[in-house]
């Protein structure tokens, strides 16, 4: 069910992502007066966030949430919220809802569940994909509890403790956009397109999901 869209390179992917995000925002604001957007972590979406921040008109109606966060001090530059803040996007948004992950993951999961529950369904969920096919902080081989937000321990990459929205929460959306760019993703793209049960494949198996991917990755994984 997932729609794949090839982009010439990482720059073109960022431009197209920003365009689709703005289109979803216009649709949502016209329909119900605000735009509830779940931001993806990692480096791939940052260029799109910078492009959006360069034209801040209309962002006052945006409500920003996060699909996952690393359990690090609040001011740590490796937190997703810190990386996103550096793009300037949250400064223009009407509401900004970072995950309070500076404490234990269990407590943060409970608190963030109370934050996101009234926001469901989201207007747009952004996701990335790691080299192993993980998305948000949902890694292969892990059990995901049936709750809105999940405490993650023993993550496959540092830091080991994280907080992530559950698959059910991420899938509760009107639109989903998966951004796939960067080195080392060829095998995961090939496995996904071959039907392997990667975390990102399980979550993005929706009719309203689109994958923006560098064309070279598609060509390497027919």
Structural overview:
With 222 residues, the chain is an alpha/beta fold. The chain has a single domain (10-205), classed as Rossmann fold (3-Layer(aba) Sandwich). Helix content is 35%, strand content 22%. It has helices at residues 10-32, 46-54, 80-85, 89-92, 105-116, 167-171, 186-193, 199-203, 215-220; strands at 3-7, 35-39, 62-66, 68-70, 95-96, 122-127, 149-152, 162-165, 173-180, 209-214. The strands form two sheets. It has a seven-stranded parallel β-sheet. α1 packs across α2 (46-54). The model has no long low-confidence stretch (mean pLDDT 96).
CATH architecture: 3-Layer(aba) Sandwich
Kindly name the structural category: alpha/beta
Strand and helix order:
EHEHEEHHEHEEEHEHHEH
Number of strands: 10
- Rg over alpha carbons: 16 Å
**Distance between the terminal alpha carbons, to the nearest Å?**
17 Å
* Helix-residue proportion: 25-40%
- Percentage of residues in DSSP E strands: 15-25%
Largest sheet: 7 strands, parallel
CATH class value: Alpha Beta
Total DSSP helices: 9
CATH fold topology:
Rossmann fold
**Low-confidence blocks of residues:** none
Strand order of the largest sheet: 1-10-9-6-2-3-5
């Amino acid at each position: 069910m997932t729609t794949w869209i090839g982009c010439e390179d990482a720059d073109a992917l960022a431009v197209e992502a920003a365009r689709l995000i703005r289109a979803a925002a216009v649709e949502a604001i016209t329909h119900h007066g605000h735009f509830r957007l779940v931001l993806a972590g990692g480096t791939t979406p940052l260029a799109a966030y910078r492009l959006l921040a360069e034209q801040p008109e209309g962002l006052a109606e945006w409500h920003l949430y996060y699909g996952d966060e690393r359990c690090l001090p609040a001011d740590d530059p490796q937190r997703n919220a810190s990386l996103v803040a550096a793009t300037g996007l949250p400064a223009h948004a009407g509401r900004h809802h970072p995950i309070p992950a500076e404490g234990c993951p269990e407590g943060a999961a409970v608190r963030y569940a109370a934050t996101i529950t009234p926001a469901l369904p989201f207007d747009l969920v952004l996701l990335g994909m790691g080299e192993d096919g993980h998305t948000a902080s949902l890694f292969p081989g892990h059990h995901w509890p049936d709750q809105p937000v999940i405490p993650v321990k023993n993550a496959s990459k540092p830091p080991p403790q994280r907080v992530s929205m559950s698959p059910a929460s991420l899938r509760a959306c009107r639109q989903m956009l998966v951004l796939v760019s960067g080195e080392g993703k060829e095998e995961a793209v090939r496995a996904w397109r071959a039907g392997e049960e990667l975390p990102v494949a399980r979550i993005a198996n929706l009719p309203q999901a689109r994958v923006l991917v560098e064309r070279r990755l598609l060509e390497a994984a027919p």
